[in-house]
Specification:
624 residues, alpha/beta, Alpha-Beta Plaits, six-stranded mixed sheet, globular
């Protein structure tokens, strides 16, 4: 086994930079997996174990870790097995994870140069444990477990420290079984429970109806006001500033799951390769597939004819986040656009994105437009909803709160920023997670409704429900993790912290508030024997709230792209659909998602793609 330790270069014998602890069972054992990747290679082009890497490369790896080690802590590199064993002093878990993740970032942000002139990336991953078994055999087995976890983490590419030897308390909880049971539980909590509380308190001599009445009135008025203000802000979205800098090389990462997207991927790649971007465009297809797929032969043929296309099959990947993270060492562009496999960006998209990036913006989120709206009634409803989201909500909210959101696709990142932020592979909405983390670190995210990309909407109700349930549960994950630490962050302005409070706090609370008028009215009818609808403030607030929805749809029609705006009846149908069913269905999905989160359910679901129906010609984008 070849070992490289911390040692001054002049000493003939390798030594630790710091003294080994007297008791190796004390403190924290951590492993940093550091498989070396040749620049221009694939994600699995690690140097083989029977070919010893350049020793200088291992010393350079240790040098980057050195600033994060304290007195008495050690680092030892095993260059044969591509890992560094680190002994840290015992400290709180969050501090251990933070230091190890900082080491991973230091190793992953820049390539290493070898004396022969070649360059190598390190695909870092880390794991750690407080446990120290007493017997030598048990220690060896435990070390192997930590090493395997670290190497598995390196394949995920998200630079997150994994702790070994613990079982999540949530994972041990029993899951709520069955969607119908979950919906029933959410309905009982939001409708029946408030009514029973009102009745019980009233019989005990405490009438809470007046308090609940004013609370509901205030909540409805506050939510409607947010919608009105957001819509008004969307009328004047921020425009890309002019830049005199010549366009630099750019990269597009297309993430795909081949069994699901084999029918669309060639069409998508042809669309990207047809872009006439002056700085030169590299296109990376980062995909996973459980088995060899016939489309891979066609992809290889296309890559042979166009060297701009890089094919990256990410073995063992189970998510889009892993695919995107695996592509990081291969990026050659100064900025990178991230896209789903069904997205077709408009001509000039990368030039427009560079106007933002070149003027100091770190992330710009474009306008996602449904291109199969003519296929079905459901696709039309989703097409209108996307205009409501990307033409009204995103730019209006970014203007209100001082920060935007990356929506997962048609988003352009400064390469240095996305390499540092990465995508968390343990998040159901990795896009929202990295948006909040980027905002907390001071990076600027803007929303540009003029930066259009066409995509496919789900064409069945089950597919739509699975997608929205994943989105809802992903928002719950992000809110639970980042709400308190973000609203108290000194790096954010007061306006941004208020925006986070609304986005991560009120957004999760409101689905439980919106049905409260029903148990309140039911209680008043039970208490008085008759239901009085004459309360003027309640009527005015209800009217104000009801008008907010149609107002937002009207703004969506006004700001929609021509291919969608030319169908005004789609917006009328969506308005009826939303008022009668869809709005409450989304609220129910959010309530169920919170119950799933509390019960420990974590499920990543792929959204099926359907290429039938295409509105590209209406946008001046002829099908490839």
């Amino acid at each position: 086994m070849a070992i490289s330790r911390w040692a001054p270069a002049s000493r003939p014998e390798p030594q630790h930079l710091h003294r080994e602890p007297d008791d190796e069972r004390s403190g924290v054992l951590a492993i940093l997996a550091v498989p070396h990747l040749r620049v221009g290679g694939t994600a699995d082009d690690a140097l083989p174990n029977d070919a010893l890497p350049d020793p200088g490369l291992s010393e350079a790896i240790l040098t980057r870790i050195r600033p994060f080690l304290r007195e008495g802590e050690t680092g030892v590199a095993d260059v044969d097995d591509h890992h560094v064993r680190v002994h840290l002093s015992r400290e709180p878990r969050r501090h251990v994870s933070a230091r190890l993740e900082a080491m991973c970032r230091a190793l992953s942000l820049e390539p290493f140069s070898s004396p022969d002139g070649s360059s190598h990336w390190v695909r870092a991953g880390t794991s750690w444990s407080h446990q120290r078994p007493r017997s030598q055999a048990a220690r060896a087995s435990h070390l192997l477990s930590v090493q395997e976890t670290a190497h598995a983490a390196s394949r995920l590419g998200d630079l997150v420290a994994r702790r070994v030897g613990t079982t999540s308390r949530r994972a041990r909880r029993s899951h709520v079984t069955g969607l119908l049971l979950q919906i029933l539980a959410a309905s009982l909590i939001s409708l029946v429970l408030p009514f029973l509380v009102l009745v019980t308190c009233y019989r005990a001599g405490l009438d809470l109806s007046s308090f609940l009445y004013w609370f509901v009135v205030a909540a409805l008025a506050f939510t409607a006001s947010l919608i009105w203000i957001e819509s008004l802000h969307a009328l004047t979205p921020e425009q890309p500033p002019p830049t005199t800098s010549p366009p630099p090389p750019a990269t597009a990462i297309v993430a795909a799951y081949l069994p699901n997207e084999a029918d669309t991927i060639l069409d998508t790649l042809h669309t990207f390769l047809a872009h006439a971007y002056g700085g030169g465009l590299q296109v990376i297809l980062a995909y996973n597939t459980p088995r060899t797929h016939p489309i891979e032969d066609e992809l290889s043929a296309l890559a042979r004819t166009d060297p701009r296309l890089v094919l990256l099959r990410v073995e063992g990947s189970t998510s889009k986040a892993q695919n995107v993270n695996a592509a990081m060492p291969l990026i050659t562009g100064e900025f990178v656009g991230i896209f789903d496999a069904d997205h077709h960006p408009m001509p000039g998209a990368f030039d427009r994105a560079w106007q933002w990036i070149g003027s100091g913006t770190d992330v710009v989120q474009g306008h996602c437009v449904v291109r199969n709206g003519a296929h079905s009634l459901l696709a039309r409803m989703v097409a209108v909803e996307f205009e409501q989201i990307y033409a009204v909500s995103h730019p209006g909210r970014a203007s209100m709160h001082g920060f935007g959101l990356f929506g997962g696709s048609n988003g352009f990142w400064r390469t240095s920023v996305i390499r540092a932020i990465r995508m968390r592979t343990d998040r159901l909405t990795e896009d929202i997670d990295c948006s909040i983390r980027a905002t907390r670190e001071g990076h600027r995210i803007v929303s540009d409704p003029g930066l259009v990309s066409l995509e496919l909407a789900p064409v069945s109700i089950p597919a739509l429900w699975r997608q929205r349930m994943r989105w809802a549960q992903g928002w719950v994950q992000v809110s639970a993790r980042y709400l308190l630490r973000t609203v108290t962050s000194p790096t954010l302005t007061l306006r941004q912290r208020w925006g986070v409070l609304v986005l991560l706090g009120w957004r999760e609370l409101y689905p439980w508030i919106s049905p409260l008028p029903i148990p309140l009215l039911a209680f008043l009818a039970w208490r008085d024997g008759v239901l009085h609808w004459s309360a003027p403030l309640f009527l005015m607030t209800t009217l104000f709230t009801l008008v907010a929805g149609p107002l937002q749809v009207m703004f969506a029609w006004r700001l929609a792209v021509p291919s969608i705006r030319q169908h005004p009846w789609w917006f009328v149908g969506y308005l009826v659909f939303a008022l009668l069913f869809y709005t409450e269905a989304k609220n129910m999905a959010m309530r169920v998602a919170q119950l799933k989160h509390l019960c420990g359910e974590r499920e990543w679901t792929v959204t099926p793609r359907d290429q039938r129906g295409d509105d590209r010609e209406a946008l001046g984008m002829a099908p490839a």
